[in-house]
Design goal:
The chain is of the alpha+beta class. The protein is built from 16 helices and 29 strands. A hairpin with a 2-residue loop joins strand 25 (528-532) and strand 26. The structure holds zinc ion.
Length: 605
């Protein structure tokens, strides 16, 4: 009975859709996502299609998506995948890999139906999807990354598509997709659809125009202390600053979609990290509504917006057109993430949002964080092995070492050009030469970069981007009239153990970085932290145990037990005098050259 009813309903719905297919387009794809009755924690997806050919017989969900540089395998979350012909008869659809379904007689397919579990609270182990690339169904909001739920038929990644979302009538929906006025959002291709996340729920909203860009802010937050109006103030500053850096308005509209969650939700979903993911006309944030989130929001808004430059408008042929099926690495993440992160800091300094001292403090923090990562792997090597699970945790270093490398590249370019042309200027020239639809050659890019700058830059690339030579902070900041001090005793007298704690994709607390002392004590990066001071450490207990370490004295010994491949490994560490590291201090007497170079460095030329 139920099945019969389903078919009748399907036929009815299908009849309604036939009129939507324009006669001129032989193949059409229309998606419907129903989350009206979201209590079952599932996205109910229907895909209507007409005119498929035999070669379009595979339906693909992404193995990875732009900007995440990780294996996500969204096919894992799909349930009850079924295909039907126009008479409502089921057509055989076989799952042939984690993310692919092969459909028999594809030319008869009129409809696909399947359900998708949300990634936030999934029980599927391993490869936890980072929240800003995932999906979350909750009582008051839904985070919907379209690529996590919708796929494309083989060979049809570039055809126009439509999508209808059935959601609660009292909710607000935020997206950069264009609404066609008749119930559908339209996209010129699957790529554009995938590039357009959706946030819906009980949201606060605000809009304004900044330098010809229509800006929308959509915010879900557990209480009204965080709201769209407040966020818009930050967005306004960030966009003014980036407009000065870019020199023109790169888009006509842009939306910040932001989902703030309380600590309990973070813990319940096993999120240790959060952040944002960039898109061409929006960025999606999943962010803590606790702790010192405000400073992070500003920096991340700057970072995500600047991604409009790279990789969105300056990228290698490897990532555009994007291969959703086979994760394929480009060696230029130093550019996509490192230069973007550098730009988002330096543009704030150059527009006066932060002082030069604050800029150096950020630089110092980045160097300190990068100390916890491997120094025997170059930025290009890290790029190329980014989909290798063993390297995943090293990825964070692009935001640190990558950005610091870009800082030095900028100084070197300014020096070589007598303060005429820094990294920003070279970067903007390259953007003009390439753009959204013109990729650069993966293998030729460094050569092109050297040709459009100075022969000396080849050494810089070989030493510090392709190579692993220690970065020459001291020598470079001296050109700006700054001293670099590697380490000195801190004025903060509290002792420290120096643990850097992160989380792996099994939601275990792990050593995210190890110092030389820890290495000597037998610890390795990635070891799961089992016990400290005899107490078992979990996400829940960590907040109670870690302050006990701070109350110890210099020289006290701390026993830590980690687990590596299930084996318990005990280690003894010693509480140390707190040290300040990577300090930048202004020199007292500057030469004319230093004055001039600093002057150029603090400006968008
Ligand atoms: Zn980024």
């Amino acid at each position: 009975m139920k099945k019969t009813l389903l078919i009748i309903l399907s036929l009815y719905v299908l009849a309604g859709h036939s009129a939507l297919f324009a006669a001129s387009d032989p193949i059409e794809v229309i998606y419907e996502i129903n989350v009206k009755n979201y209590q079952d924690d599932l996205f109910h997806v229907t895909v209507y299609t007409e005119g498929l050919k035999e070669e379009n017989n595979i339906y693909n969900l992404p193995a990875t998506v732009p900007g995440t540089y990780s294996n996500l395998n969204f096919g894992r979350f799909v349930q009850d995948f079924k295909a039907y012909d126009k008479n409502g008869n089921e057509i055989k659809a076989e799952k042939i890999s984690t993310n692919q379904w092969k459909i028999e007689n594809a030319n008869n397919v009129a409809m696909l139906k399947y359900k998708v579990e949300d990634t936030f609270d999934t029980e599927i182990p391993d490869q936890k999807v980072i929240p800003m690339a995932g999906t979350g169904i909750n009582d008051d909001f839904i985070v919907l990354n379209t690529f996590a739920v919708l796929g494309y038929f083989e060979g049809l990644q570039t055809i126009p598509v439509k999508v209808k979302i059935d959601y609660r009538s009292d909710w607000t929906l935020g997206t950069s997709l264009t609404y066609d006025g008749s119930g559908y959002y339209i996209a010129e291709s699957y790529d554009q659809l995938a590039d357009s996340p959706i946030l819906m729920g009980l949201l606060s909203t605000a809009s304004t125009t900044v330098n010809d860009i229509n800006v929308g802010v959509y915010v879900y937050a557990p209480d009204t202390s965080i709201n769209a109006k407040k966020i818009m103030k930050v967005a306004d500053e960030v966009l003014q600053s980036s407009a000065e850096f870019i020199g023109y308005s790169p888009v006509t509209n842009y939306n910040f979609l932001m989902c703030f969650l309380d600590q309990q939700s973070f813990m319940a979903n096993g999120f240790m990290g959060a952040g944002a993911l960039e898109h061409s006309y929006s960025s999606l944030f999943v962010y803590p509504a606790f702790g010192n989130y405000a400073a992070g929001v500003k920096d991340d808004m700057a970072h995500e917006f600047l991604h409009i430059l790279t990789p969105l408008n300056l990228h290698s042929e490897i990532i555009e057109p994007f291969n959703f099926v086979v994760p394929t690495a480009s060696e230029h993440i130093w550019l996509y993430e490192g230069v973007t992160e550098w730009g988002s800091d330096i543009m704030q300094m150059r527009s006066g949002l932060i002082s030069v001292d604050e800029y150096f403090k950020k630089l110092s923090d980045k160097i300190t964080i990068s100390d916890g990562f491997r120094n025997d792997i170059s930025l290009t090597e890290l790029s190329e092995s980014v989909y290798n699970e063993a390297i995943t945790m090293e990825f964070i270093n692009f935001y640190n070492k990558g950005a610091v490398t870009a800082t030095l590249l900028d100084i070197r370019l300014l020096e070589l050009s007598d303060g005429e042309r820094g990294l920003r200027e070279v970067f903007l020239e390259l953007l003009e030469r390439y753009g959204k639809y013109k990729s650069f050659s993966e293998d030729e890019f460094f050569k092109i970069f050297v040709e459009s700058t100075y022969p000396e830059i080849e050494d810089f690339i070989n030493n510090y981007i392709k190579g692993t030579k220690p970065l020459p902070y001291k020598e470079y900041v001296a050109m700006l009239g700054y001293n670099y001090i590697a380490e000195r005793i801190s004025e903060d007298k509290r002792p420290q153990l120096g643990l850097q704690i992160g989380m792996n994709d099994k939601q275990e607390l792990v050593l995210a970085g190890v110092t030389d002392d820890m290495r000597k004590a037998g610890l390795q990066k990635g070891d799961a932290i089992y016990k400290i001071l005899g107490e078992e450490v979990t996400i829940q207990s960590a907040n109670a145990i870690l302050p006990k370490i701070s109350s110890l004295s210099v020289g006290d010994s701390v026993e830590i037990i980690v687990k590596r491949d299930g084996v318990e490994i005990p280690a003894k560490l010693t509480m140390k005098q707190r040290m300040d590291r990577h300090i930048f201090e202004e020199m007292s007497d500057l030469t004319e050259d230093q004055k001039n170079l600093r002057d150029a460095w603090t400006k968008n030329l």
